[in-house]
Write a structure and sequence with these properties.
The protein has about 375 residues and is of the alpha/beta class. The chain is built from 13 helices and 8 strands. The protein has an 8-stranded mixed beta sheet, sandwiched between helices. Strand 1, helix 4 and strand 2 form a beta-alpha-beta unit. Bound molecules: NADP nicotinamide-adenine-dinucleotide phosphate. The site of NADP nicotinamide-adenine-dinucleotide phosphate has 27 residues, from helix 4 and helix 10.
Length: about 375
């Protein structure tokens, strides 16, 4: 039957938590003036929610538009040519003989150009690749192009955190100081893919492996202090996303481009966090944006951009220029935690984009990454 107020009946069971129906009953049973006040408050709250949604939508649209404009004018080849007018030749006349560099994803695109660039400055380069055949081909090419025989191949599939850990143990057993770690390997996978270890693939390679590898080779980096540095190849794509604690993109509709942008935002915030955490260890942490370069990765994952900008994308060497530059510069010239673009400090947030405050979440994100990767809790 109906209840006295005419509202839908409650189930009548004692101590049952109030469901939505029951709540509705409760509200209708109040005095009329209370109901008016309650109704007015609800109206105002839903107006505020509408306003927040509208602002978020405008902010998102603004971010995308500002990123597009910034990108098309600066990230392209013409942007590089323009910025290169300010480059100083002497910056690149530094040698790295006797210094050890580890470059991930070194068989292709920017990683290849980075490994070649560092090798041409005399560094001992360890090329971390997942595929032996592709790795060997790249290794032989780089040795023959640079004449530097101190270039070596390391095999590791970074989508497996267990492999990253084994690699770090094996590499650490060489007991060599590590002067430069370049976290370059990365991907943009549009389809939601889960690795055999249960991680979302973009997150696994771009974030989990980057974090785990860096933390596990810290003792080697410290051996190379005060000269040591970690350069993480992030992306301007991160301008479109704030830092998000939803690391593995649990939303039902997967958007790989968005997930990639979120991953890159994590890399930039992580770099800031590392710079602060390890400020007394003599290891410098820098993230960077290579601009838009014509790499196998871009033509595979962003075919439309690749086609639209055909002829105006950067060469692999131009994309890797700032990575090599960061590897060569005396540490005093570099600002820890900074995001670099074309050999200069760049903004981490676009104006009015509303992304800046999100970096406060990095501490809890680090805790989550450590737990996902089965690393002991952060000391
Ligand atoms: N090109 C650009 O315009 C651009 C712009 C912004 C940022 N970036 C960043 O630059 C970095 C390099 O990208 P790219 O454009 O040079 O792409 P790329 O040509 O596809 O190179 C990516 C490299 O990462 C390696 N890699 C991918 N998954 C791996 C895994 N599970 N284990 C080990 N290695 C793995 C690839 O190995 P395989 O060859 O075996 O696949 C390859 O060597 C990425 O972090 C990317 O996000 C690029």
């Amino acid at each position: 039957g109906e209840s006295a107020s005419g509202a839908p009946p409650c189930s009548g069971r004692k101590n049952e938590p109030l469901g939505p129906e029951a709540k509705q009953h409760f509200v209708s049973a109040r005095a009329p003036e209370e109901e008016d006040r309650g109704g007015g408050e609800r109206e105002r709250e839903s107006a505020r929610a509408r306003e927040r949604r509208k602002n978020m939508f405008i902010q998102k649209a603004w971010r995308t538009a500002a990123f597009g404009l910034y990108g098309f004018t600066q990230f392209t080849k013409s942007g590089f040519v323009e910025h290169a007018k300010k480059f100083r030749e002497e910056d690149m006349q530094i040698r790295l003989d006797g210094k050890n560099c580890l470059v991930t994803g070194a068989n292709s695109g920017l990683g290849y150009a980075t490994a070649q660039g560092l090798a041409s400055h005399g560094a001992t380069v360890y090329m971390l690749c997942r595929n032996k055949e592709r790795g060997e081909t790249a290794l032989n090419e780089i040795r023959s192009k640079t004449g530097n025989m101190n270039v070596h191949l390391e095999i590791c599939d970074l989508s497996s955190i267990n492999e990253v850990k084994s690699f770090a143990t094996k590499f650490s057993s060489l007991e060599k100081p590590l002067h430069v770690l370049v976290n370059n390997a990365g991907l943009l996978e549009h389809k939601r893919t889960t690795t055999p270890e249960g991680l979302e693939l973009n997150f696994a390679v771009n974030v989990a492996a980057t974090y785990t590898l860096t933390e596990l080779v810290m003792p080697l980096l410290e051996k190379a202090a005060p000269d040591a540095r970690v350069i993480t190849v992030a992306s301007g794509g991160m301008y479109t996303e704030p830092l998000n604690t939803n690391l593995q993109y649990s939303e039902s509709e997967f958007d790989g481009t968005k997930q990639y942008a979120r991953n890159k935002r994590v890399q930039v915030a992580l770099t800031e966090w590392w710079a602060e955490k390890y400020s007394n260890k003599g290891v410098g942490f820098y993230s960077m944006h290579p601009g838009w370069a014509d790499t196998p990765g871009v033509s595979k994952s962003l075919p439309v951009l690749s086609e639209k900008l055909s002829g105006n994308l950067r060469s692999n060497e131009e994309g890797a220029d700032t990575v090599v530059w960061l590897g060569l510069q005396p540490k005093e010239k570099l600002v820890p935690g900074t995001f670099y673009f074309d050999r200069a400090e760049a903004q981490k947030h676009l104006k009015f984009a509303g992304t800046a405050a999100s970096h406060e979440k990095i501490g809890s994100i680090v805790d989550s990454i450590r737990s996902i990767c089965n690393l002991p809790a952060n000391p």
